[in-house]
């Protein structure tokens, strides 16, 4: 049975029903247990379908779900990776967990990011099992926790030695082949000054004023420099001041100011350089007054890789993915993403990884989150084609 014969077995209504069931289960950081309910649901459902299922506890009560369809050793292995968590629903979302089909689109929290892709990956495996297809290489699905809050689940996978020959991550790419995205680094910058009464500010040193000078130096000195550092398909490095906190009372010169910095970096940079540039600017500000001091503290886990993804255009996984898209009736288009993804963690662990998934990133995290049903069907076709080419199969 070739790919096209399996394509004909796709039942859009069955696929929608599976994705809808995933959407009905809240799985964000404000829910007790976060992903626990959806992990248990998938584990039970897939065991009932006679899949080999295991769980990996990442944190207490939060577990990755790992599905293994073993091959006979004559093919290569493929990982289908998708995260089970979502962001919380927006205040304007009327029924975030009541999936709704309108104009060929499936609405609900997580429909786009990324329960649609998770459902499509699982459905692809169900089609293989249902049609008695025997794989030559091992096929894995990993439903991971904590992607929205630092990639916790996938980091746990690779830390514990998980491996595969290739991987595809199902983030919403509008069915484009994403081979490039920026890295992320988050910092907490703290400035300390000297408090005094607001009526005699010259007797103190305002940490807030110093913080504003630090931000000004970033805008005037660092931003132009970052604009000259460019990565293929994603553009230049960026920096964003996301949070500023300081002061105690209106009638006191503030002795502390905290600034949270989000830094998106490209392959022409490295983490030491990023940190030293911020520390250099902070040092210059503090040198203007001996009563000032400051610290730059990284916020992301030290043991994780949060750098850029950049897959060479002539890499075998890119060629395979382009053929899979063509076989599925989609014109291949290579693209980049601005946000960071688990594909970078997998690539850094030695697993060549690309991103292909239904939905547009512009719809992710919005109050009108949706995924096109046609793209759900297309993604099943692409995942099946990737399985066929990488793992190989027979009936």
Would you kindly provide a written description of the structure presented here, covering whatever features stand out?
This protein has 395 residues and is an alpha+beta fold. The protein folds into two domains: 3-181 and 308-394, Aminopeptidase; 183-298, Alpha-Beta Plaits, CATH 3.30.70. It has ten helices and 22 strands. Strands 1-2-7-3-8-20 form a six-stranded mixed beta sheet, sandwiched between helices. A hairpin with a 2-residue loop joins strand 4 (100-102) and strand 5. Helix 2 (12-23) packs across helix 4, helix 4 (111-130) crosses helix 10 (373-390) and helix 8 packs across helix 10. The longest helix is centred in the N-terminal third of the chain and has 20 residues, at 111-130. The chain is elongated. It starts with a helix and ends with a strand.
Summarize the structure.
Helices cover 33% and strands 26% of the residues. It is of the alpha+beta class and 395 residues long. The protein has two domains: 3-181 and 308-394, Aminopeptidase, CATH 3.40.630; 183-298, Alpha-Beta Plaits, CATH 3.30.70.360.
Secondary structure topology:
Blueprint: H1 3-7, H2 12-23, H3 36-48, E1 52-59, E2 62-69, E3 78-83, E4 100-102, E5 105-107, H4 111-130, E6 134-135, E7 139-144, H5 152-159, E8 166-169, E9 177-181, E10 183-192, E11 196-197, H6 207-226, E12 230-231, E13 235-236, E14 238-246, E15 252-253, E16 256-265, H7 271-286, E17 293-298, E18 309-310, H8 316-327, E19 334-337, H9 342-348, E20 353-355, E21 370-372, H10 373-390, E22 393-394
Parallel strand pairs: 3-7, 3-8, 8-20, 9-19
Antiparallel strand pairs: 1-2, 2-7, 4-5, 5-21, 6-22, 9-18, 10-16, 10-17, 11-15, 12-13, 14-16
Helix pairs in contact: 2-4, 4-10, 6-7, 8-10
């Amino acid at each position: 049975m070739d790919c096209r014969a399996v394509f004909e077995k796709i039942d859009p209504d069955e696929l929608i029903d599976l994705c809808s069931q995933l959407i009905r289960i809240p799985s964000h950081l404000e829910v007790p247990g976060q992903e626990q309910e959806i992990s248990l649901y998938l584990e039970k459902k897939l065991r009932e379908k006679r899949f080999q299922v295991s769980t990996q506890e990442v944190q207490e009560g939060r577990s990755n779900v790992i599905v293994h369809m073993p091959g006979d050793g004559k093919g290569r292995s493929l990982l289908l990776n998708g995260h089970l968590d979502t962001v919380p629903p927006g205040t304007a979302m009327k029924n975030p967990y009541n999936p709704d089909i309108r104009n060929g689109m499936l609405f609900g929290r997580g429909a786009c990011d990324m329960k649609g892709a998770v459902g499509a990956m699982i459905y692809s495996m169900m089609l293989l099992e249902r049609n008695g297809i025997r794989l030559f290489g091992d096929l894995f699905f990993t439903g991971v926790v904590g992607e929205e809050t630092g990639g916790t689940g996938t980091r746990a996978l690779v830390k514990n030695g998980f491996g595969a020959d290739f991987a595809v991550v199902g983030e919403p790419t509008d069915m484009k082949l994403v081979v490039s995205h920026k890295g992320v680094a988050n910092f907490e910058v703290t400035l300390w000054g000297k408090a005094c009464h607001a009526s005699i500010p010259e007797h103190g040193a305002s940490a807030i004023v110093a913080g504003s000078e630090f931000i000004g130096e970033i805008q005037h000195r660092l931003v132009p420099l970052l604009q000259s550092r460019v990565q293929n398909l994603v553009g230049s490095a960026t920096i964003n001041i996301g949070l500023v906190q300081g002061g105690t009372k209106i009638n006191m010169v503030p002795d502390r100011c905290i600034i949270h910095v989000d830094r998106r970096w490209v392959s022409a940079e490295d983490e030491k350089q990023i940190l030293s540039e911020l520390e250099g600017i902070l040092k210059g500000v503090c040198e203007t007054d001996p009563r000032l001091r400051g610290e730059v503290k990284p916020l992301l886990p030290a043991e994780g890789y949060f750098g850029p993804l950049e897959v060479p255009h002539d890499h075998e996984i890119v060629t395979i993915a382009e053929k899979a898209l063509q076989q599925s009736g989609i014109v291949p288009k290579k693209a980049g993403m601005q946000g960071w993804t688990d594909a970078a963690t997998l690539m850094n662990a030695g697993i060549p990884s690309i991103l292909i998934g239904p939905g547009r990133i512009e719809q992710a995290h919005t109050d009108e989150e949706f995924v096109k049903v046609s793209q759900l069907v297309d993604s099943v076709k692409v995942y099946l084609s990737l399985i066929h080419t990488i793992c190989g199969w027979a009936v």
